[in-house]
Amino acid sequence: MLMLLGIGSTEETVYRTILENPSYGVTELSLELGWPVDQIRSTLDELARLSLLRPSWEEPDVLRLVRPEVGLAALLAREEAALLARQQEIERSRTTVAQMIATYADQNPARPSEDSETLVGIDMIRSRIEELTADCRQELLGFEAQGAQTPDNIEASRPLDEALLRRGAAIRTVYLDSVRNDQPTTGYALWLTEHGGQVRTAPSLPLRMVIFDRRTALLPMDPEDSGAGAVLLRGVGTVAALVALFEKTWETANPLGEEHRRDEKGLSNQEREILRLLSIGLTDDAVARRLDVSVRTLRRVTAALMERLDARSRFQAGYLAAARGWLPTCP
After folding, report:
1. pLDDT digits (tens, 9 = 90+) for 106-130
2. Dihedrals φ, ψ of 196, to 5°?
3. Which residue from 24, 68, 221, 292 puts its CA 20 to 30 A from 229's CA?
């Protein structure tokens, strides 16, 4: 049960026995558990190394129990700090991978026989989207990570989506939660659902993306600037990974028109995502951009979360959120 804290089964057995019988010494533990004295001594030494036992001030050769709320809490805090660090490493790795894909695509211009193709300029990108949509027969998956859609984007997308749906192809799109406050985008999303498409929203999305028939994926070269160009990917493994990312996001996103769901801890998707993004070290400005909300709105939600956690600082809020299981665990 306590392996994640570095406490093995042998140490846990001895520790539990001491908790129930604080006055037990080596002899009593040996008799209680039926273990050799040497094994008891080595196990006590390990518990001391973990700071669950400490030498007595009066009898330095005797180990005394450290109060569990102190000793175990310290081990838990250490593991939570390691988990937060791991989350930050994963986020940095994700950004690096995206940059490496973009760099490779930039150095390897369009070649129909290869697994990637670089598209530069809005005209070229829209032309390829039209071609790929015309060839799409089964399913189109999309992340609309830029927030509210421009009138030009809506006008360009409507005939393509309409043709797809007439052919019987499925359309599943995830927008940002923030578009619920934008009437033109919400209107278009409702039009999609009325004609057979499926639309959900999420508090944030990793990047803008369109996947055609699970065979070809279109991504921006720079997730922060979709106008800089796009890269078309056809590699089986790469596209499969992107499909898995879509499905994972789709699973937790809210269907358009439904009330925002809260989890068993009373957190909305937006609140969970804010905690996650802040825990990996993003600034208020960066988090607000990811969620497509104002910095003022972000700080209002953050302040409410800190109040619920009874935290006096961002650092304390992160620790308390992790301790209560409000932050996601690493995959």
Report:
1. 665 554 446 788 888 888 888 888 9
2. 110, -5
3. 292
Q: What number of residues does the chain have?
A: 331
| β-pair type (139-144, 254-255) | unpaired
What CATH number belongs to 74-90+262-323? Answer: 1.10.10.10
Look up tokens 């769901």; give the residue: 261
Identical fold, 74-90+262-323 and 109-255: no
Domain limits of the chain? Answer: 3-66, 74-90+262-323, 109-255
- Tokens standing for 275? 């905690």
Residues 224 and 290 sit within 8 Å (Cβ to Cβ)? no
Phi/psi of residue 244, each to 5°? -60, -40
pLDDT at 330: 46
The 10 Å Cβ neighbour count of residue 33 is 16
Looking at residue 128, the DSSP 8-state letter turns out to be H
| pTM of the complete model | 0.54
Q: Which fold has domain 3-66?
A: Arc Repressor Mutant, subunit A (1.10.10)
Q: Which two tokens stand for residue 137?
A: 């027969």
- Domain 109-255 homologous superfamily, CATH: Endonuclease Chain A (3.30.870.10)
| Cβ-contact 14, 40 below 8 angstroms | yes
Kindly list the distances between the CA atom of residue 70 and the CA atoms of 47, 76, 77, 137, 178, in Å, as whole numbers in the listed order. 14, 10, 10, 61, 43
pLDDT digits (tens, 9 = 90+) for 209-233: 999 999 999 998 887 766 678 999 9
- Name the pLDDT band for 236 (thresholds 50, 70, 90): confident
